[in-house]
Every structure is written in C-alpha cells, then in structure tokens.
Amino acid sequence: MLEVVLAAGLVPTFTFDSLTARAEEGASWAVNSKIPLSIVQFWDAQTPPTEVVELAQRTQEANPDCSYQMFCEDSAREFLRDTLGARATELFDACPHAAAKSDFFRVAYLFDRGGIYIDADEAAVRPLSHYIQRNGFDLVLRYTKADVSCIDNCFIAVRPRMLLLQRVLDAILGNLTNMARNGMPTNVWVLTGPGVWTFSLVDLCLDPLANYRGSPLARTCLLEGADYQRLFDSPVMEYKSTEKGNWRLLKI
Questions:
Q1: Cα torsion at 195, 9, 217, 35 (round to 10°)?
Q2: pTM over 0.85
Q3: For a designed S-S bond to 249, which of 23, 31, 79, 243 qualifies (C-beta 3.0 to 4.6 A apart)?
Q4: For residues 185 and 189, what is the distance between their CA atoms, to the nearest angstrom?
C-alpha cells in the first residue's frame, strides 16, 4: 500500500543530492524548523556496550549544535509514567523485547517533545541540522523501497504533537493492550515497529478528514535507504548476533 501512496505523490520523497541543494540554496517554502535540535537514543541497560558508546560519540561529534541524551529502561519508564500514566509503564514492561520498548518509548517521547531519534546501532556522520532546519521540515523519515515498501523507524526527526505521531502512538498502545489482554506476543515489526509506522502513514494519507484543509504531511521528507546511508553509518554490531540484542531472532 505504501507503493501506491509514494507513486501518487501523497508524501514527499527526496534524494540526498536534492536535500543538499535545497539546504544550500534555500528552499522556496522553507521556514524556521519546528523540529528541536535534540538527539535522543535508547539502550535498555544503564551502561551500553562499547560499540554503542562509540557510535553515540560519533553522532555527537558530527552534531555539536544538538543536545544529546541516552535513555535507559529505567529513565524511559519514568518518562512514560510522567507523560502517559501508570498504565503506559505496565504496557512498556509487557513488551516482549527491548526493541519493542525502544519503539514505544521513542514515539511517546517524540510526540510529547519532538526532536531527533537515532537507533543505537547507527551514527549520524553529517550535521543533521543542515538538512532539517534549512529545509523547514516537520518530519523526516527513512523508507525502504521494495516489492513491499515500508517506513523505517530507525531514524525520526519530528516536531512535537504531529498528527502522524499521535496515530502511531495510539496504534502501539492498542497493540500492546491487545497483546497483554490476549497473552499472545506478536512480531515486533507489526507490534510496535515499522509495520505500525507504515500502516499509520498510509491511513493518514488516505483519510479525507485529515486532509480536508491540506495534507498533514506536506512538510515531510522521506529518504530512501541509499540516500539515507549518506547521512548515517550503520555498521554490523556484535550485540545483534543474539536473540537478546536482535528482535528478528526472537522466537514467538
């Protein structure tokens, strides 16, 4: 379904070269970006492995104009309790994998405060403000173009309270509630991850009420994988070789 949305031009897609040119020349519709220059990441333990710490340092070095915070499971749970209430922390604890907890937390945090989320197994190697602020985007995401294309949630830059984030958050809360009620964990991709993002974005694009006064995704930037990799380094990480570190190896 995402292929149809992309083919119809219902959400803007960009190449790295076009982004660079727009930023350097000044986009015709650019305004001061409402995306806060604050980078957040998540690692379930308080002390991440050395390979994760090194990637985080690279991100900070390439983005000196951004604040930075690494959340752990305890600080993420505290944030969810303060913003969404005790029930949200129960759902957080019910997540079947650390990746699902990370999925849930990043959406809740970004909806409330906005900012830039980057997965712990990636490093931003260029100053993200150059590509976000100068183009006046409300939302920047990566997508994978394939026979069945999808939105990836490894990187999210967004202003607070954006409608798409509200829909993704509602879907995750609903999925986790159903899982806790029925006692049947499902694939993380569908439960809290890219599947939720893809379905929510397509649903929003095709919702006539949401688009009545203009597209809520007009100031969105989708970057395809090859162009995305010119902004980020995604090395093979040792921790992802185990079920504990890689949700794809989780046996449900």
A1: 90
A2: yes
A3: 243
A4: 12
Tokens of residue 8, six digits: 């119809």
Q: With H, G, I as helix, E, B as strand and everything else as coil, classify residue 118.
A: strand
Q: Which of 6, 216, 234, 14 is nearest to 131 (CA)?
A: 14
pLDDT digits (tens, 9 = 90+) for 136-150: 889 999 999 888 899
**pLDDT tens, position by position, 187-236:** 899 999 999 999 999 999 999 999 988 899 999 999 999 999 999 999 88
Who contacts 62 (Cβ-Cβ below 8 Å, separation ≥6)? 123, 124, 125, 126, 127
Q: With CA atoms as reference, report the closest residue to 103 among 194, 13, 21.
A: 194
The DSSP H or E segment spanning 91 is helix 86-94
CATH for 2-249?
3.90.550
Give φ, ψ of 125 to 5 degrees: -105, 0
> What is the distance between the alpha carbons of residues 88 and 70, in angstroms, rounded to a whole number?
20
pLDDT at 28: 47
Rounded Cα distance between 23 and 30, Å, is: 9
**Distance separating alpha carbons of residues 87 and 80, to the nearest angstrom:** 9
Distance CA 208, CA 206 (A): 6
List pLDDT tens digits, range 38-67: 999 999 999 999 999 999 999 999 999 999
